[in-house]
Amino acid sequence: MAKKKLTTASGRPYFEKQDSMTVGPKGPILLQDYYLHEQMAHFNRERIPERVVHAKGSGAFGTFRVTHDITRYTKAKLFSKPGNKCRVFARFSTVGGERGSADTERDPRGFAVKFYTEEGNWDLVGNNTPVFFIKDPKKFADFIHTQKRDPKTNLISQTMRWDFWSLNPESLHQVLILFSDRGTPDGYRKMNGYGSHTFSMINDKNERVWVKYHFKTLQGIHNLTAQQAEELKGKDPDYSQRDLLNAIEKGDYPQWALKIQVMTEEQAKHFRWNPFDLTKVWPHSEYPLIDVGILELNEIPANYFADVEQAAFNPSNLIDGLDVSPDKMLQGRLLSYPDAHRYRLGVNYEQIPVNRPICPAHNYQRDGFMTVNGNHGSAPNYYPNSFDDIEPDKKYKIPSFNVESNLADTYDRNENDDDHYTQPGLLFRKVMTDQERKNTVANIVDAMQQIDGPKRDEIISRQLGHFAKADRELAIGVAKGLNSPFDVDKI
Ligand code: NDP
Ligand code: HEM
Q1: Are residues 304 and 194 in the same domain?
Q2: Which E.C. number(s) belong to this protein (predicted)?
């Protein structure tokens, strides 16, 4: 086979790769050695900003196949009949660590899936937990600061973390999941994924239902013990990447069953918690899981940077028949992600192959850095015009939420809005096994022991108060482990 010629970026064949062009064999380098400059300059620009959260991750392509009929809930073409398929790209991640951090840190795991459908991209940008630490986007930046490094010491600080959590008791549900064994999943294949927020579906009669998405792993749930996770941080910091890569390359394709929970608008009015509160789940016994389809990952991208690092997921990438809800966190995320992508990847990030829809995009967006799609050629760049045949189509009109009955206001004032304790209590008492309860307490003690400084006792006793309101035994167990004089009967 004929060998390929080494060239400059502009395609000029080049004669020498190893030695710079010099004045004589020992002389200084000539300014005209363009290949050398190009190589050094390009290298200096190899790094793009890492994601401000979820910087460390792994990705794979695959397929999603619809197995059950859900047309009574949604008119989305993807779900029009069982057997429909589309290509997907999924990216899993840890949240707080930098791009080089260890995969087995105790942290939620990102679980983001891009569905390339005939009617545009649908991104479901979830986590491996059904709830989150906060329920208002105004708190997000402050919360994330506590998961990152201390401004002075540049160290991870359990003091910052527990100070924030203890002052924001709405975090308790997610904190408990984080410190259970599910906080250290055994790679990315053996964990569930959750859309977490309440979304909505709209059917062909324009009726809306509220929906939660669940991806149940078909590999079974497997977690690492705290000790295993700790050891792997040193032995194999890229453990989850290796696990996903190895499984897919040997044909052992991981799969998840996509299921939904559905709540009618009427049911939502009477739900005992705010159905749009991201710190709460909908009990399965009242809102059972409904089968939808199977997600399978079967292709590792040929180039990590091209596809995994440049992937841009966006909760506002929705398709006709799938919509948002009044969940404040979701509403905040609709703005935050495209903004983050414009900063990290540039204004034309949707033109990068991994993000590009498989259907054509017809609009009047033009120019900007890195326009690589031909910029719509000579087509008109304004609307309305007398030349093209692009028109908005009324059939895609999104029905409004029922705000006359002040859904949002009603739920804002829900009397159970400050109930941060019932669901974590159920999780600890009813769902966890004895061993899981033991591990959860031990994991919490291990982290809280590291709280230091003048506010140590105050932070510990505030947090113990929250544990006690969720479950007495939980608070007693943690207090005992910390040798704290905390008196659970005073709560
Ligand atoms: P169920 O008994 O019907 O369901 C319990 C759920 O808890 C299952 O989905 C199970 O996941 C999951 N689970 C088990 N161990 C853990 C853990 N350590 N951390 C997080 N989730 C875990 O109960 P309910 O629906 O009535 O909910 C009771 C409690 O279960 C909730 O308060 C919540 O804390 C938790 N939960 C509920 C979910 C929901 O959507 N209703 C989802 C996840 C958790 P799996 O089936 O995969 O083993
Ligand atoms: C990534 C913001 C809550 C899941 C990100 C990024 C930002 C962000 C800015 C980086 C995007 C990028 O540069 O590519 C926020 C804000 C939130 C919020 C403002 C709350 C208001 C959540 C919640 C979930 C979640 C609740 C899960 C349910 C993810 C995932 C990624 C991510 C999975 C990584 C996506 C990928 O793999 O590229 N978030 N986030 N986030 N977020 Fe959030």
Answers
A1: yes
A2: 1.11.1.6
- Is-catalytic flag, 127? yes
- In this prediction, residues 254-279 reach a mean pLDDT of 95
Q: How confident is the model at residue 269 (pLDDT cuts 50, 70, 90)?
A: confident
> What's the 476 CA to ligand 1 centre distance in angstroms?
23
User: Whole domain around residue 25: which residue ranges?
Assistant: 1-46
The pLDDT score that the predictor gives to residue 412 is 53
Decide if 87 is inside a domain.
yes
Q: Do 6 and 41 fall into the same domain?
A: yes
Residue 41 sits in the same domain as residue 83: no
121, 127, 192, 317: which is the annotated catalytic residue? 127
Go through 399-417 and write b for each residue having 16 or more CB atoms within 10 A of its CB, e for each that does not. eebeeeeebeeebeebeeb
User: Ligand 1 pocket by C-beta < 6 Å: which residues?
Assistant: 130, 177, 180, 182, 192, 216, 221, 281-285, 423, 426-427, 431-432, 436
CA–CA dist 345, 310 (Å, integer): 7
Residues 78 and 19 in one domain: no
What pLDDT score was predicted for residue 401?
Answer: 79
User: Can you read off the two tokens belonging to residue 473?
Assistant: 């035994």
- Please check whether residue 166 lies inside any domain of the structure: no
Residues 17 and 86 in one domain: no
* pLDDT attached to residue 61: 99
Q: Are residues 34 and 76 in the same domain?
A: no
Task: Please indicate, yes or no, whether residues 216 and 293 belong to a single structural domain of this protein.
Answer: yes
pTM, whole model, 2 decimals?
0.97
Nearest to 54 by CA among 235, 356, 313: 313
Task: Report d(CA 189, CA 331) in Å as an integer.
Answer: 29
**What is the pLDDT, as a whole number, of residue 46?**
97
Number of domains present in the structure of the chain: 3
Query: Is residue 110 within 6 Å of ligand 2 at its C-beta?
Result: yes
ipTM reported for the complex surpasses 0.95: yes
The question of whether 54 is a catalytic residue gets the answer yes
**Ligand 2 mutation target, pool 316, 336, 341, most atoms within 8 A of CB:** 336
Query: Which stretch of DSSP H or E encloses residue 467?
Result: helix 456-470
